[in-house]
Structure formats: structure tokens, C-alpha cells
Amino acid sequence: MQPISYVIKESVPNYLASLPIPNTFGGWFRLGVRDWISLIPFGAAVAGFTFIVYKAFAPRPGGQGWINPNIKKDNPKVVDVIDVEDISEKAAFCRCWKSKKFPYCDGAHGQHNKETGDNVGPICVQRKAK
């Protein structure tokens, strides 16, 4: 524990005290090249920490984690029933919720996959040959 204590109590405060941080706004314009170079590691550490905190707490794409962005939002649950007799030889049904012809697939998953890195595709239903 002594090395950690040393870093927290002595090393970090000494490092921070040695940084050429001016007392006034105009002081930033009077810093030399060496002063700016000595501020680079501290600035990089602050930027890295800020980025990590942002990624941890930033809202995720897609709103509130919804899968369905806009199809039948007035219904508590989207359920589509399709009679088997209404299907021709083959039908492709959307699973990405992006199709303009929902519940049928219109290929919108291709753009969705490109944008998100996902690999979703339609579910295909085919009549069994008699």
C-alpha cells in the first residue's frame, strides 16, 4: 500500500504543482513552447478521462433502447396474423422493424446492418411442396 499512498499523497500533488498553469486568462498567452509541451500529458489524461466518462453515461443510439422505431406505436403490442393461404409460394417477413411494408420485408435491414454493424435479416416462410 505504500507505493499507492506515495503516488496519491506526494507524486501527483508534486506533478500538479509543477505544471505551468497561469493565474490569469492572459497568462495562457505568455506561456512558452516548453510550458505548452509540459501541459500535453496532463491535457491528454484529462481528455481521456472525459471521453471514458462520456462513453459510460452518454445516451445510446436508438432512443430508449426500443427495437420498433415507428410501427403501430399506438398498440401496446404489435401482433400480425397472416393466414397461410394468403402466402404465395414464399414470403419474407421483416425482423428489423425498418420495413416500409411491415410485416413484409422490403430489404431495409441492409441499410440497418450497414449503419449498426448488426446482421439481422428477414424470416422466410415457404410452402412445402406436395
SSE topology sketch:
Layout lengths: L1 H17 L14 H25 L32 E4 L15 H8 L6 E4 L4
Antiparallel strand pairs: 1-2
Would you write up a description of this structure?
The chain is mainly alpha-helical. Helix content is 38%, strand content 6%. The chain is built from 3 helices and 2 strands.
SSE class: mainly alpha
* Total of helices: 3
Mean pLDDT: 86
- Strand content bin: 5-15%
Low-confidence stretches: none
First and last CA, distance = 77 Å
Q: Could you give the count of β-strands?
A: 2
Helix content: 25-40%
Query: How would you sum up the major sheet?
Result: 2 strands, antiparallel
Features:
130 residues; mainly alpha; two-stranded antiparallel ribbon
Structure described in brief:
With 130 residues, the protein is mainly alpha-helical. It contains three helices and two strands, in the order H-H-E-H-E.
